[in-house]
Amino acid sequence: MSDNCCADATGAGDALNDKRWRRILWIALILNAAMFFIEMGAGVQADSRALQADALDFFGDAANYAISLGVAGMALAWRSRAAMFKGITILLFGLFVMGSALWAFANGTAPVAETMGIVGTLALLVNVGVAFMLYRYRTGDANMRSVWLCSRNDAISNVAVIAAALGVAGTDSAWPDLGVAAIMAGLAITSGIQIIWQARDELKSGAEPSVSVGEA
């Protein structure tokens, strides 16, 4: 990365058309799609609700990155509509995870801690790398912000999955796994609401927000 920390206030459209921005989204899309298959398989094998929920999050993020690539460079209204759709899907994901945790509370068994720890660490490395690449694009319109929030929340969730693996290993109980699922649900619900609110405001005002793009 360059050591030059410059601000680009030329508008959201210029930032969204940045070749580097699009390249990062393609990398994030490929990594998230691959991690969905890896983590879902491991989550089923280990009977971990947290891993399965995180896998669904990877799938949702891959779809979100694809949508972001599709609307990059379009008018603000279209970007805001895409962000509204993403906000709604994130909110629904959070509600799904909460319901899954409640179901597992009544019917689940203790997951395999070793699998949780290994796969959770791999997922953390992927998400930290993606979040680091996207850090300079964390401001701007709702569409750009939603991409950053997804990556940030994923990294936080992965730390929680690793902590849950340690908790499961120490207690031989499903409680740590279910606790992480609840945390992930809370993060998704909160972020979804934030994105929906910002997208709604942008659709009402129709004004382009200023974008500050700095090096990570």
UniProtKB/TrEMBL annotation:
Superkingdom, natural source: Bacteria
Primary site of residence: membrane
Keywords: Ion transport, Membrane, Transmembrane, Transmembrane helix, Transport, Zinc, Zinc transport
Example GO molecular function: zinc ion transmembrane transporter activity
Pfam families: Cation_efflux
Cell location: Membrane
Residues annotated as domain Cation efflux protein transmembrane: 25-203
Keyword Transport: yes
Membrane spanning residue stretches: 24-42, 62-78, 90-110, 116-135, 155-172, 178-197
Protein's membrane topology: Multi-pass membrane protein
GO-annotated cellular components: plasma membrane
PANTHER family for the chain: CATION EFFLUX PROTEIN/ ZINC TRANSPORTER, RE54080P-RELATED
Name of the protein described by the UniProt record: Cation transporter
Organism: Pontixanthobacter rizhaonensis
